[in-house]
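During the no-cost extension, the postdoctoral fellow (Dr. R.K.) reprocessed legacy sequence entries with the updated structure-token encoder. One reprocessed record is reproduced below for audit purposes.
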Amino acid sequence: MVYGDGVGPYDVRLIDMLGNEVILHKNEEEGGNDMAERYAVAIKVISQKGTCAAEHKVGEEWVVKNKTPEGICLSAFSALFPSIRTLMFGGSFPWSSDPDVARPACPDAENPVVFELRRLR
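Re-encoded structure tokens follow.
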């Protein structure tokens, strides 16, 4: 089946962070309900100032695959989650010099913990 605008029934139209339209194509033979390729994401504490309530320390590491990693503070994980999902499904951030890396911080401004997220290929 061919559609005039090149978009089929299983295709998804997205707008990336720069405003460009991106179309993810799936044909009927592929089923259309397969998930995009998923990457694991490594989390590492790279900076910690003040007193972290969860006692996170520089050098702590976790890997996110399909479940929440044990031992990470829920407030920090909630702040990291949007960036984790972006990296997990192949996205990147235009302000990052490395498309596989993001450096978000926990929301405690008086005791900031900065994390490095790295897509594992």
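Helices lie at 74-88. The chain has two domains: 1-34, 40-120. The remaining legacy entries will be reprocessed before the final report is submitted.
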